[in-house]
Design a protein that fits this description.
The chain has helices at 9-31, 43-61, 72-75, 87-98, 108-111, 133-148, 158-168, 179-188, 190-193, and strands at 3-7, 65-69, 171-173, 197-205, 214-221, 230-237, 249-261, 264-276. The chain has 290 residues and is an alpha+beta fold. The strands form two sheets. Strands 4-5-6-8-7 form a five-stranded mixed barrel. Strands 1-2 form a two-stranded antiparallel sheet.
Length: 290
């Protein structure tokens, strides 16, 4: 029976889709736009996924040329299969390339469940200290026991060491590295931080619950990907607060005080000085594990 070469258009479509996803993932990592979607510590896994998808593309591309019998019953097998099943993949790929890569905006904060009146849902960098009042006390006890056995400070809980530094400092400079630790500590033990000065970079959010001179200064905290992004920050008070627009990036310096929010005691930053700022190249906060 005579054999002939035919072209498998379905295999061609599959291979092009796989190539598109592989190229897109490589481009995300290379351009650093990956930060808008996942925690950068997973960039290596993204590269691995791109490589695996590219290998799948090579396998699928090899199926484009098929040597078949001339029997028409088999030569065109599957030709009637609907190509609509590939439409969702094509649309997703087009959206990935055509839609702009940008950070979550301030308008999403309310939808994400922002609450600046109580301790924000942001965990501390370690599971041993700062997660709740009892844990911190336990960590302090453990450190005392470690000292009694002659251990050095480096042998102690590194998170507790950071907490001790915060509690002893007269000025708390909030950075990307200590953001979640400061947030957790101040909301858990506001009385220990009342009266301390603090500096912070963040964007403005406003809420109907806020008074005229109040605004929230927050950052999005991402543990895994943008889907789990949580807005975290502090309630601020400043006489010119109405002059700021939601989404404005600001550098502030002020003093932590015990204030009221919806009838409950909450830490509030009394802003002393403020300046406009540019959105950082990477606007998100990623929990640091000491």
């Amino acid at each position: 029976m005579q054999r002939q070469v035919s072209y498998n258009k379905e295999a061609l479509l599959k291979s092009l889709i796989l190539l598109g996803f592989s190229v897109f993932l490589f481009w995300l990592v290379k351009s650093n736009n990956i930060i808008y979607y996942i925690n950068p510590r997973f960039a290596g896994l993204t590269k691995l996924a791109a490589v695996l998808i590219f290998l799948m593309f090579l396998v699928q591309a090899g199926n484009f040329y098929l040597q078949t019998h001339s029997d028409h019953r088999h030569a065109h097998a599957g030709r009637g299969r609907s190509k609509l099943v590939f439409l969702p993949f094509v649309i997703t790929l087009l959206m990935a390339f055509l839609l702009p890569n940008q950070a979550l905006d301030a308008g999403m904060a309310q939808n994400k469940g922002m609450d600046l009146g109580s301790r924000t849902a942001v965990s501390v960098q370690s599971g041993q200290a700062g997660a709740n009042p009892g844990n911190a006390t336990s960590a302090e006890t453990n450190n005392s026991d470690a000292n009694s056995r002659g251990y050095t400070e480096q042998d102690q809980n590194p998170v507790q060491t950071k907490i001790d530094e915060l509690r002893q400092a007269s000025l708390i400079q909030v950075s990307e590295e200590n953001f979640t630790l400061v947030n957790s500590e101040v909301y858990t033990y506001p009385d220990k931080y009342a009266g301390k000065e603090i500096t912070m970079l963040g964007f403005v959010v406003k809420d109907q619950k806020f008074q005229a001179e109040q605004f929230g200064l927050v950052r999005y905290v991402i543990t895994c990907c943008s889907a789990d992004a949580l807005p975290a920050g502090f309630l601020c008070e400043y006489t010119s607060a109405p002059d700021f627009n939601e989404g404005d990036w600001l550098n502030i310096r002020g003093t932590i005080e015990l204030g009221k929010y919806e009838g409950e005691t909450a830490p509030v930053i009394k802003v002393a000085s403020i300046s406009a700022a540019q959105q950082p190249e990477n606007p998100y906060i990623y929990p640091v594990y000491f």
